[in-house]
Design a protein that fits this description.
- The protein contains 12 helices and 8 strands.
- It has about 300 residues and is α/β, with parallel strands linked by helices.
- It has a single domain, classed as Aldolase class I (TIM Barrel, Alpha-Beta Barrel).
- The chain has an 8-stranded parallel β-barrel, surrounded by 5 helices.
- Helix 1 (about 25-35) links the parallel strand 1 and strand 2.
- Helix 11 crosses helix 12 (about 280-290).
Length: about 300
């Protein structure tokens, strides 16, 4: 059995921007403290929600370094270091380890994609270069590349490939993955709407967008489920499902950054090519936040 990276709700944290779209580190520090003070179990920085695709290499490393220093061992820091360029992903993962990250999150190659054999070689190449755990991130709706259960079984043989963030929406495939991998691969839900389901199946929790605005609630869904209170965990999942859906009413992280700005945080705009929400979608999101009592 491999060591667990974290158990509970890890936030896929946004990267706040100034009006000129430079990184707003002052506000980022405020967000980190807000998360930890409200029960978040891990900080996942420079992921898709953190707009990693538009961060330069220098910015990427600086954000990771800032996160590690600001968190200061209060919770694990997981650095997004994935790329469709294996050698760049490997270099960035090595750098994240040097900067003090507790683990890395590595998305499947996108656009050029690869075969299942290519996935094995890609991830093993990265894992061979580091001495910290890796979470493999499977989100085929964004990458066009899906990890099959048999491929997970092969990947889980590597001592540094310890977990997956699963967001392919295929629960049947996930059952096969868990049957094949056993204790060699921890599972985190990569979809807020499946946090209860995957945790109840034996997963360790969720890597969450929803937690950006509701960290304690996201933590509680997982905590209740892990404690065996399935009725309570599912009740919370059902209660917040409409809000979770609203946070994906446009391309992530457009809605969640808009929601955080409505809540009084200064998260600024998203970088291009992500554009502001339409007025109707924005108003629907605002109405949802009012409905849940998050804003007035």
């Amino acid at each position: 059995m491999k060591n667990h990276i974290f158990t509970g709700s890890g936030v896929a944290i946004v990267t706040p921007m100034n009006n000129d779209c430079s990184v707003n580190y002052e506000e980022y520090g405020r967000l980190i403290d807000f998360q930890i003070n409200n029960g978040t179990d891990a900080i996942i920085t420079c992921g898709t929600t953190g707009e990693s695709a538009t961060l330069s290499r220098e910015e990427h490393c600086k954000v990771i370094e800032y996160t590690v220093q600001k968190v200061n061992k209060r919770v694990p820091v997981i650095a997004g270091t994935g790329s469709n360029d294996t050698m760049f992903a490997r270099e960035l993962s090595v750098e994240a380890q040097k900067l003090g990250a507790d683990a890395i999150l590595s998305v499947t190659p996108y656009y050029n994609k690869t075969s299942q054999a290519g996935l094995v070689r890609h991830y093993n190449c990265i894992a061979d270069a580091i001495n910290i755990p890796m979470i493999v991130y499977n989100v085929p709706s964004r990458t066009g590349c899906n990890i099959k259960p048999e491929t997970y079984a092969e990947l889980s043989k590597h001592p540094n490939i310890t977990a997956c963030k699963e967001a392919n929406g295929d629960i049947t495939a996930l059952v096969r993955t868990m049957a094949l991998c056993g204790d060699n691969l921890d599972v985190y839900s990569g979809e807020d709407a499946q946090a209860f389901t995957i945790t109840a199946m034996g997963g360790l929790g969720v890597i969450s967008v929803f937690a950006n605005i509701c960290p304690r609630e996201s933590h509680e869904i997982v905590a209740r489920t892990l404690s065996g209170d399935f009725k309570g965990g599912f009740a919370l999942q059902k209660h917040y499902i409409a809000l979770m859906d609203a946070l994906f009413s446009d391309v992530n992280p457009i809605p969640v950054k808009a929601a955080m700005n409505m809540c009084g945080f200064n998260c600024g705009p998203c970088r291009l090519p992500l554009a502001p929400m339409s007025e109707s979608t924005y108003n629907a999101l605002r109405s949802c936040l009012v409905k849940y009592g998050i804003i007035k």
